Automatic annotation (TrEMBL):
The keyword Transmembrane helix applies. Residues 487-503 have a biased composition (Basic and acidic residues). Keywords: Membrane, Transmembrane, Transmembrane helix. This is Spore germination protein. Signal peptide: none annotated. Belongs to the GerABKA family. It comes from Clostridium yunnanense.
Length: 503
């Protein structure tokens, strides 16, 4: 847009706005006069639906139109400032000549006021659009922790963080991304903890984005991640404010995107995808047990179907004789090799899971449960697959549900097919080879300069206190070194045992 400034004639300003926004039915123009400003004519422009009607009446029109006994000398250099201080009750008022800034504010829900013969316009905060109320997280359930979640309003989300972190060093850096959507984005971090090199890298990547639209935080995730060709996520996603605040306190950066209830947390290490919010609300022994259980679930979700194929087709000698005979008897009459069986059942299960996800919630649950039972039983009865395979596929699917991060479970589901195909072709060599290649791939990944397998690579005493093991809270004195925080001290050193004060 050309560098247009505010004109002194109201009609010129009105016509320019119409030339930019067209004759849209939601753009409202309200003419009125301001008695205390020498009965000057004024024009208020706002977008219906983005502003509150009560705000327009109470903080703008009524104060400016009703005060008739006060007069402001138009010859004063600060005449407009006097008008704002005496006639506008809004919580935020700014003045600008730049039409680009005025239109951006208008499309964000503010009201623009032009005054005849004045070459500046007032930007008055009147945002009052409808939004979803704060509710319980839908994807990250917690038994003991807080029950609130982020919503689609960026200001509501920053307030949820402010309520929990009352640190003077908490910062929210604002910027707009998207040439057409001009989506508001906020970077949240604690200035005295965050790694400044990581912060600079994040800002550089965000400023390089040149795209028409940002409609969700997933757009930002894909545009700034280190590698777009890996199956594994390089940023953590959450809708829980407590989890986001915990990440900020560890020295991470939070990216909040307007119109998205999910925030991005970065940098990230692989093991954090297997930590749940409840781990920090339960005793350390329980949290450690659950983390190892999830690690077992990780291995089983990727390998169970492949182990079935490997043992049945290539390495029957690894099975006890009685079990091998039972498997052979159960597969009698099955016309397909084990790899075809496994691929068929895995594909059917993924189809049922996707169908259940896309259908209305009550119907989707029924489809998932009934479909799995019916298809599994029918496949065995028809002699298409062996009954033991159903157990392995079900175990693999259930294990993937135990992963707290849903985006990681997607990665594991795809990885399962890679290992399965490699095992079906090369047997145990394919099984081991695929596992080694995936591990090497993970070792090669970085998340904003941080090793993806950090906190355990290299292993440090500080990292061991909150990785696959969780130490008692009183012993977690230092922050993880993986993210390079400036302030590594979380708390002062305390005794392992609380001492009873002596009288």
């Amino acid at each position: 847009m050309e560098n247009r400034v505010v004109a002194t004639q109201l009609d010129n300003n009105k016509n320019f706005i119409k030339s930019k926004l067209g004759d849209s039915g939601d753009v409202m123009y309200r003419d009125f006069t301001i008695p205390m400003f020498a009965d000057k004519k004024a024009l208020a422009v706002y977008i219906d639906g983005l502003v509150g009607a009560k705000e327009i009446d109470d903080i703008l029109l009524r104060p400016l139109m009703s005060r008739k006994n006060e007069n402001i000398n138009l010859q004063d250099n600060n005449a407009l400032d006097q008008l704002i201080s005496k006639g506008v009750i809004s919580k935020a008022v700014t003045v600008s000549k730049d039409f680009e800034k005025l239109l951006d504010s208008l499309l964000s829900g503010d009201t623009i006021v032009f005054i005849d013969t004045v070459n500046e316009a007032m930007i008055i905060s009147t945002r009052g659009f409808q939004m979803r109320s704060i509710a319980e997280p839908s994807n990250e359930a917690s038994i003991r922790g807080p029950k609130d979640s982020f919503i689609e309003s960026i200001r509501a989300n920053t307030a949820l963080i402010r309520r929990r972190i009352r640190d003077y060093d908490l910062r929210f850096d604002s910027l707009k991304v998207g040439k057409r959507t001009k989506t508001d984005i906020a970077l949240a971090y604690i200035d005295s903890i965050v790694n400044k090199d990581v912060l600079k890298e994040v800002n550089d990547r965000l400023n390089k984005i040149d795209i028409d639209a940002i409609l969700d935080s997933s757009y930002i995730e894909e545009l700034i991640e280190d590698s777009s060709f890996t199956l594994f996520p390089q940023m953590e996603v959450t809708e829980r404010p407590d989890k986001a605040c915990a990440s900020i306190l560890e020295g991470k950066i939070i990216i909040i995107v307007d119109n998205s209830p999910f925030v991005l947390m970065l940098p990230v290490v692989f093991w954090q995808f297997f930590q749940a919010a409840d781990d920090y609300y339960e005793k350390f022994q329980i949290a450690t047990f659950l983390r190892w259980l999830r690690l077992i679930a990780l291995i089983l979700s990727m390998t169970l179907s492949s182990i079935y194929v490997m043992l049945v087709s290539f390495h029957q000698e690894m099975l006890p004789t009685s079990l091998a005979l039972k498997i052979a008897a159960s597969r009698e009459g099955v016309p397909f090799p084990s790899i075809m069986e496994a691929l068929f059942m895995e594909t059917m299960f993924e189809l049922m899971r996707e169908a259940g996800l896309r259908m209305p919630k009550p119907i989707g649950q029924a489809v998932g449960i009934v479909g799995a039972l019916v298809v599994g039983e029918a496949a065995v009865s028809a002699g298409l697959v062996g009954p033991l395979l159903i157990i392995f596929v079900a175990g693999s699917a259930i294990s993937s549900f135990a992963i707290p991060a849903y985006n990681t479970s997607y990665s594991l589901r795809l990885t399962r097919f890679i290992i399965l195909i490699a095992t079906g072709i090369f047997g145990i060599l394919g099984f081991l080879g695929a596992g080694i290649l995936i591990t090497l791939h993970l070792l090669s990944l970085n998340s904003f300069g941080v090793q993806f397998l950090g906190a355990l690579d290299p292993v440090t005493p500080r990292a061991r206190k909150d990785s696959l093991f969780k130490a008692p809270l009183r012993n977690m004195n230092k922050r993880s070194p993986a993210f390079g925080p400036k302030d590594v001290n979380r708390q002062s050193k305390t005794s392992d045992k609380n001492e009873t004060p002596k009288n």
